[in-house]
Structure formats: structure tokens, C-alpha cells
Amino acid sequence: MQSKTIIDIIGNTPLIEAKNITSNKNVRLFLKLEGKNPGGSVKDRAAFHMINEALKRGEISKGDTLVEATSGNTGIALAFISKLLGVNMVLVMPENSTEERIKTMRAYGAELILTSADLGIEGARDYAMQLKDKKGYFMLNQFSNDDNWKAHYNTTGPEIWNDTNGEITHFVSAMGTTGTIMGVSTYLKEQNEKIQIVGAQPADGAKIPGIRKWPEAYLPKIFNRSKVDTIVEISEAEAKKTSNRLAKEEGVFAGMSSGGSVCAALKIANRIEKGIIVAIICDIGDRYLSSDLFE
């Protein structure tokens, strides 16, 4: 009997076709269900790759303490994967994160520090850096860590290419740390440079968990603008509406960043004559039940 651990089932997530949400009959929209990862989000891929590669290189050893700022999904992934790989995890997150996220990270055994909601994820990043310097913790720094995007270059990109038989014309992803879109773009463009890469970004004033329009000082160092062909701005109302439509019309229960991703995909679908679009469904909807997303 073949033995598997929970880490072995990260990746190879389902790709399903949306049948009801699109209006352009010459465009096929596929959804990559990253909520099917064991930690419930696309961030499982990067979390495992970042810790595992750091261990391989000898940058960290079992028993060491790591620190990372997170807005939610990365923290959950790091919390459960760190324990399995034998390292300790301190997570720093804005205090206005959903109760589900907070309890999940603590359930996995991570130490969680909540920072001021007014300072946002930028404040959490600053505080995590202070802990790194003060206590000597190791910081993975997902925002500048090449292992973040390489996780998607090695896994998510090839899966999408193979599952669409190389027929994909457009790839759409929410942009947070930008690891997903950077890795998938790099891989897909190597297969066919004509594939269009589309990033979903919040419109001015919109607050969409998991999607960011970063101030210049906090722009992820792994982000390369030349690898994104089109950026589509999404309002808060559009992201919420699309998340609810996904649940009601496609049976896909996902969070607000997924609503943003699919909203961008639908806008692209209305602009093109025909094509095959793949949009990332970042996580599962369960961790938003204490918010007003589905009210």
C-alpha cells in the first residue's frame, strides 16, 4: 500500500468549466479550484516550497523559529506545513482578519500576533521585520522570495497547461503577493507567448482580502510588470457580487479574492470574440462566514 502524507496531496487541484456564469458562448471559462488543497487555498503550494527549499539550502534547521506577515491564507498554509516540517511559526496579521482565519492558525499550533487594523498588512509586514531583527527569527518574506513564484512555475502552470491540452488563451489571477501570477505567467509564456496574462487589482478605495494595490514602498520584489499583459481593476461590490454568483450559479463556494479573479475573467470574456480562460479560485468560502460577504 502506497503511503501518503498530507503534504503529498498539495497541488493537482481540479479544473472545472463554468457553465452558467458566462454570457459569451464562444468563450469557455475554467476555474482552478485551489480551495481543494489540504490547507484550503492556493497558498499551500508556496508555503511548502518556501520552507522546504530553505531547509534544503541549510538556511534554516528543524527547531528554528520563522516569522511571517500574512493577511490570512498564507498564514494558514505556513501554520500547518511548518509543524509537519519541524519548524516553529510566528505569524503577524491585522486584527480585522476573520475569526475563522485566526482560529485556524492557532489550531495548527502557530503563534499569532495581531497588529492594528488601521495599519493594514503593511503594518503587519513592518512588525514582522522588527521581530526578525529583535529576536533573530528567520523570515521567509513571501513578497521577495523567489521560491514563492517558483512553486507555481513548477506546479500550477504545468497543471493548467496540461489540463487545457495547451489550448488556454487567457490566464486570470488575483494579485496579492503576486507569486501565483508570476509563476504561472513565466511557465505559460514559455509554452506559448501569445497566452494573455490578466491580473485582478482592487479599484481605488476597494478593500478586497487577498488582492492588493501596493504602495510603491511595499510592492512585492518578486513582481515583474512585464509578465502581466492586462490589469483589470475590480470594485469591492463587484468582487462580493461575483463571489455570491459563483456559489449560487456554479456551486463554487469561495472567498472574495476569487470573486475578484472571476469578475476580471468575465470582463475579459466580454471583450474577446472567442477563447479559453482559466481563472484561479484562491480558497474556500468557509473562512469568510463571519464576514458580511455572503449576507
TrEMBL record:
Coiled-coil stretches: none
UniProt KW keywords: Amino-acid biosynthesis, Cysteine biosynthesis, Pyridoxal phosphate, Transferase
Modified residues (N6-(pyridoxal phosphate)lysine): 43
Catalysis performed (reactions): O-acetyl-L-serine + hydrogen sulfide = L-cysteine + acetate
Pathway(s) per entry: Amino-acid biosynthesis; L-cysteine biosynthesis; L-cysteine from L-serine: step 2/2
Xref: Pfam families: PALP
Enzyme Commission number(s) of this protein: 2.5.1.47
GO terms of biological process kind: cysteine biosynthetic process from serine
Domain of life: Bacteria
Domain Tryptophan synthase beta chain-like PALP, residue spans: 8-283
Group of enzyme by EC: transferase
GO molecular function terms noted in the UniProt entry: cysteine synthase activity
Gene3D superfamilies to which the protein is assigned, alphabetical: 3.40.50.1100
Binding site for pyridoxal 5'-phosphate: 73, 176-180, 257
InterPro entries assigned: Cys_synth (IPR005856), Cys_Synth/Cystath_Beta-Synth (IPR050214), CysM (IPR005858), P-phosphate_BS (IPR001216), TrpB-like_PALP (IPR001926), TrpB-like_PALP_sf (IPR036052)
Cofactor requirements of the protein: pyridoxal 5'-phosphate
Assigned protein family: Belongs to the cysteine synthase/cystathionine beta-synthase family.
PANTHER family in the record: CYSTATHIONINE BETA-SYNTHASE
Protein name according to UniProt: Cysteine synthase
Species assigned in the record: Aureibaculum marinum
Gene field: cysM
